[in-house]
């Protein structure tokens, strides 16, 4: 949907066919709903991913992230990045920055609802080790000096132990389907891990 919305002004037949496929998917999944469990993780956990240079027109990358609580997704987003990334690590780093902003807000809201503050850092999983090292390194890195300074704010929150980025392999990345087209098996894996179940499968 996010990708198709870019062709609203001059849609072609291929776009109409894709829209029909979306409607068929919605019809086939209308009985799905988010399930939250008492024995699920009581701490908010995030997953963020990026698809480097996915837009063939301007070569901007796509960011996707989701946050989980009690076994189900409580927040998710997929959007095109505002600037062109020069590497996969840079695209992932920008995605981590977007996820960090959402994480800080969710962490504050969660603390207010529980009437207590969680002193543990909020864990966000990423499948790019270079981007994770960039978020934790205080050293000068010539290859990253061009990255917009607004993306470096997450380093402060990592150093202040507000957020912690951890590595996860790509095959276990839940946010993968928010950035790119995936196989049917991977799509099913992602939506299931996000807590989506059919009404008859509770």
TrEMBL record:
UniProt GO molecular function: nucleic acid binding
SUPFAM superfamilies to which the protein is assigned, alphabetical: DNA/RNA polymerases
Entries under CDD domains matching the protein: RNase_HI_RT_Ty1
GO biological process, one term: DNA biosynthetic process
Top-level taxon of origin: Eukaryota
Protein name listed in UniProt: Reverse transcriptase Ty1/copia-type domain-containing protein
Originating species: Pectinophora gossypiella
